[in-house]
């Protein structure tokens, strides 16, 4: 096993301990093009949940701003999208985060073989 494969695999496995920092540092430090490619792919895959989390914060904020309207619509039996948006987002975010973890573990193990 070469150092390039170990560093590339470590970039993917860093989703468990230093998700954004380690691939970025390895990308800046290494001179090997193959390691840089894997570090960039790992960094982008680690960045996806962060971007979704920012979108989730915006969704939760918007749902809190419409809290007064939600209470009146729930009591009157109406359907309000913002009352279910946080739950829908949480389900989508969980599924995508799990997919990102599985993708990173798959590529990390694939590089170690």
Describe this structure in words.
- The chain has 5 helices and no strands.
- Helix 2 runs antiparallel to helix 3.
- With 113 residues, it is mainly α.
- Helix content is 83%, strand content 0%.
Note the topology.
Blueprint: H1 3-13, H2 21-29, H3 33-65, H4 67-75, H5 81-112
Helix pairs in contact: 1-3, 1-5, 2-3, 3-5
Beta-strand percent range: under 5%
Number of helices: 5
Distance between the termini: 8 Å
Low-pLDDT regions = none
Shape: elongated
Helix content: over 70%
Taking all Cα atoms into account, the compactness measure Rg is 20 Å
Q: Summarize the helix and strand pattern as letters.
A: HHHHH
On the 0 to 100 scale, the average pLDDT is: 85
Name the structural class: mainly alpha
The beta-strand count equals 0
Major sheet: none
Please tag this protein with its features.
113 residues; single chain; mainly alpha; 5 helices
Short recap of the structure:
The protein has five helices and no strands. The chain has 113 residues and is an all-alpha fold.
């Amino acid at each position: 096993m070469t150092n390039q494969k170990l560093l590339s695999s470590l970039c993917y496995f860093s989703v468990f301990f230093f998700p954004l920092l380690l691939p970025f540092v390895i990308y800046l430090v290494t001179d090997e093009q193959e390691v840089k490619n894997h570090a960039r792919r790992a960094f982008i895959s680690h960045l996806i949940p962060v971007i979704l989390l920012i979108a989730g914060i915006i969704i939760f904020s918007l749902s809190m701003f419409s809290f007064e309207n939600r209470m009146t619509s729930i009591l009157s039996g109406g359907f309000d999208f913002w009352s279910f948006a946080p739950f829908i987002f949480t389900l989508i975010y969980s599924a995508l985060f799990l997919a990102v973890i599985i993708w990173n573990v798959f590529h990390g193990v694939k590089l170690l073989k």
